[in-house]
Hints:
Layout: H1 3-7, H2 11-16, E1 18-22, E2 27-31, H3 39-49, H4 53-57, H5 63-77, E3 79-88, E4 100-103, E5 105-106, E6 112-113, H6 117-126, H7 128-139, H8 146-155
Antiparallel strand pairs: 1-2, 2-3, 3-4, 5-6
Helix pairs in contact: 3-5, 5-6, 6-7
Amino acid sequence: MGLYEKLATSVELETQGVIMHYKDLGLRMGLRRAGGKNSAYTRAITRQTRDFQRALDLDQVSEEMMTAVLLPVFADHIVALDTVETEIDEAGAPCVGTGKWTKGIENEGGEIVPATREQIVATFKALPLLFQRVREDASRESLYLASAREAAAKNS
């Protein structure tokens, strides 16, 4: 396998997403790439940061301010809302390790609710460590390699 075959990313994976399975959280969701060929994300970030680009260039933007900008952009352009699922027990309550899944995401009250833009933003605000993991995964180029997609296709 040559250099280009090893390092070329898949436009389809970058724009439609890869399913991330957070087993320790009982959560799985499709993530589009933060960058690369996901031009919708790039345009949205550019649009949202235009007013304070100078401050960004000078590294004078607080983490809180940047997170406030990123949350809705991630909900709109990174998380594939229709793929968000939560692991549940026989009673339908969130529970890790059962192997039974339902559409939606757990809210602060422990209920499974639809994974809407607003709910994803609220979840990421309430759980900054989850947002950090999603942000890191969406930026991890290796998840979006064309060679990984081909290998997965061969194994299925």
